């Protein structure tokens, strides 16, 4: 295990780091260095501080169209998102989180759908430094993040700490958001509120506008007319042609098509058994088109596999559930060792799912075996964010595919970033005592030594015994913040860590020369 290295350097903002915080950490392939921080303006006063946790969505806009160019009519390929963006490509192994950058798109059309709504501006003394300069609307990568009653947009390509744009909400805090780089009509940004309301809008249009209102937005579930519980997670359906899903704190998830108008009377059937999964379709052609009753209690996070075939959900009841999205069937799932599950993420190849939660553990779930194949033990508090790193490849990779190593990361309320390597051939089952024998360790490759019963289709597994599941340890443990962390994102150039209070740190990857020297 590599720990964070010591340094006396000041951070990117010119201020010394708080006591105990380091501005770089080491990995076997080289050092990661703190490049800059992003946050809300220092004078920003927001209401209900602490009731909403900051999440970040990464959005990459290509060159804006010319004024005479109509909105793109090419086929769209939406990327599934869980408080972020799923990568559209990976270098070598399948690993990515719902917040990994790897796409191009965002056609930038500013066409508004029918039934558009403009939001009122909340009272605030903060002056927006962004003045509507069209230079901010060109090709670039942006961070969209929520703090209190506002959405902020920062330019990732600069080291400026303050955002270039703020959007304020007067009635309810924004909680979740997602970006679709291939949206047909320019509505590529989704925002879900604490009161249940959902908006779709054009990110490019927000950057063009100098005001502090959400402009040209389509309003769904207005005033919580369909469901007034918190929008806990929101995601575009990959290859879904404008279809998106919204998860709520009451255990229900709704399917929307942004081309259709909203309705105040969806006329869904009554949920007969709240303990069972069920799907109800609307009796008209308006939004939402379907309701999925997932569980009792909150759905805390959702994530699509990269091809959009499967949807993973985690909830307050501690269960990971995996659904076939097209057939609307529960495929498999399993329970945490203890407490709620808070986050989930797919590998890019769809073979593995990461989960984290209140048991302080990272679960690695195999879709092929339909069971937990490893625990990750290293956090000292709740695990609040997990992600595969699709831009990392093992230094000794021979490109044969026979020896695959997955790199992934996790963050928690213990303020720490952990990096892990998952190498199935080297997984070791924890200490166990065979009947009548002495304690032994067994190799993970000897699968007969541990539970090899796969989950039946549509079945949910109880939590396995800790002694029956291989345990892995983190490669790196690095204390990032003084406050709990809420998420992380991998990009080709960096790793982003997100503090629940609204601070984002950008850690640059090792240089090529460092990596070559480490091999």
Automatic annotation (TrEMBL):
<dbReference type="InterPro" id="IPR051362">
    <property type="entry name" value="WD_repeat_creC_regulators"/>
</dbReference>
<feature type="compositionally biased region" description="Polar residues">
    <location>
        <begin position="1"/>
        <end position="10"/>
    </location>
</feature>
<dbReference type="Pfam" id="PF00400">
    <property type="entry name" value="WD40"/>
</dbReference>
<feature type="region of interest" description="Disordered">
    <location>
        <begin position="1"/>
        <end position="49"/>
    </location>
</feature>
<keyword id="KW-0853">WD repeat</keyword>
<dbReference type="InterPro" id="IPR015943">
    <property type="entry name" value="WD40/YVTN_repeat-like_dom_sf"/>
</dbReference>
<feature type="repeat" description="WD">
    <location>
        <begin position="334"/>
        <end position="375"/>
    </location>
</feature>
<dbReference type="InterPro" id="IPR036322">
    <property type="entry name" value="WD40_repeat_dom_sf"/>
</dbReference>
<keyword id="KW-0677">Repeat</keyword>
<protein>
    <submittedName>
        <fullName>Putative WD40/YVTN repeat-like-containing domain-containing protein</fullName>
    </submittedName>
</protein>
<dbReference type="InterPro" id="IPR001680">
    <property type="entry name" value="WD40_rpt"/>
</dbReference>
<feature type="repeat" description="WD">
    <location>
        <begin position="299"/>
        <end position="333"/>
    </location>
</feature>
